[in-house]
Amino acid sequence: MTTLSADEHDRLQSALQSISTVAGLDFTGAELIRYTMNAVYYLPAAKVVLRIAPATKSAAVSRVARVATRLADLDQPTARLAIGMDKSIETPGWAATAWTYLEQTPGHRHRQRDLAKPLLAMHGLHDLGISLPDWDPVGRSRGRVEEAAVGSDLDFLSDWSCRELRIPLTDLLDQLLRRCSELETAVASAEWALPIAVIHGDAHAGNLLTSPDRGVVLCDLDSVTLGPPEWDLVPSAHGVERFGDPRDHYGAFAAEYGFDLLHSPNWPLLRDIRELQLVTSVIAGLRGRPEVAVELGHRLRSFIARDDQTWHRYR
Questions:
Q1: With contact defined as beta carbons under 8 Å apart, do 244 and 310 qualify?
Q2: What per-residue string of b and e applies to 167-196 under the rule 16 or more CB within 10 Å gives b?
Q3: Considering the domain 1-101 in this protein, what is its CATH number?
Q4: How far apart are CA 44 and CA 39, in angstroms?
């Protein structure tokens, strides 16, 4: 788990307490198990997992609750909301969802090929019967860059940009916005090999859990929408090229799924979109997360240079 400053730790503890109090959950012994865009806590006394986001994301959090409920109704291999908690939990500053805790075998890591079966099930759906946002893989990155340009941490980000990248923050943000425009134009004219379907939107092995009665299931349903299934194959392919994941693991996944994205003419475009996402996902929320700030600096130097340096996953 990534290191937090004392101020950030206290801020998240306040969020945990307020959300738990509103939901009537015992947060004694709560453990922060992941923190990228959302703060994810395991509450052992309640046997639930809380995914907490700022109140500015309340509409998205509410949509995730509806999506999770609908996928459960369709018996899809996805994580389930906690019993009796099928709506988002909201306070003046925060919004959250509560999920059934699935105990995992200590030290076990899912393989890329474990993604194939749940993805094939989801890609077999061509409608959820509820409103879903348009697939817009670049729009979220654009929004995060724009948020960074007007946020409350401009002084911090300016110092970080000059230290890590040796360029002014305004130059960095301008470069990222230009790249957004280039990729939006390319996406608009792309022709996909696979038919449009329900997609997970962030399908990597870290978003898999094992359920005792349903096998391997997908979690982190924030990005579920209708779009090209190729997009759900990107993280596995990109892991080989950018994070140094074993190529044979990807090969086993591609064989089981039945499509090798690395040999698709759309791979260069999809790779570039993925990289843009990975260098913008946390740019507006770096304060108090020193290890993440250093790694993002490394990623951005590589992204700007368009080199093939290995990146490292956030902890």
A1: yes
A2: eebeebbebbeebbeebbebbeeeeeebee
A3: 3.30.200.20
A4: 16
Which residue's entry shows tokens 């990005």? 223
Which residues lie across from 225 on neighbouring strands?
199
Residues of the chain with CATH 3.30.200.20: 1-101
Residue with tokens 């609750």: 65
Burial of 51 (0-12, 13-18, 19+ CB in 10 A): buried
Amino acid at 292: V
pLDDT in tens, 68-101: 999 999 999 999 999 999 999 999 999 999 999 9
The whole-angstrom separation of Cα 314 and Cα 213 is 30
Confidence check: pLDDT of 128 > 80: yes
Query: How far is Cα 142 from Cα 134, in angstroms, rounded to an integer?
Result: 15
Can you tell me the distance from the alpha carbon of 104 to that of 116, in angstroms, rounded to the nearest whole number? 20
Written as one letter, the residue type at 89 is: I
For residue 210, which of 111, 285, 136 has the smallest C-alpha distance? Answer: 111
Topology given in CATH for the domain delimited by 107-315 = Aminoglycoside 3'-phosphotransferase; Chain: A, domain 2 (3.90.1200)
Global model pTM greater than 0.70? yes
Integer Cα distance of 134 and 138 in angstroms: 11
Cα(197)–Cα(228) distance, rounded to whole angstroms?
6
3-state secondary structure of 307: coil
Cα 207–Cα 213–Cα 218 angle in degrees, nearest 5:
15
* Stretch(es) of the chain classified as CATH 3.90.1200.10: 107-315
Give the separation between CA 50 and CA 204, rounded to whole angstroms: 20
- How many whole angstroms separate alpha carbon 125 and alpha carbon 104? 28
Could you read off the pLDDT of 254-309 as tens digits, one per residue?
999 999 999 999 999 999 999 999 999 999 889 889 999 999 999 999 999 999 99
Of 14, 178, 208, the closest CA to residue 96 belongs to: 14
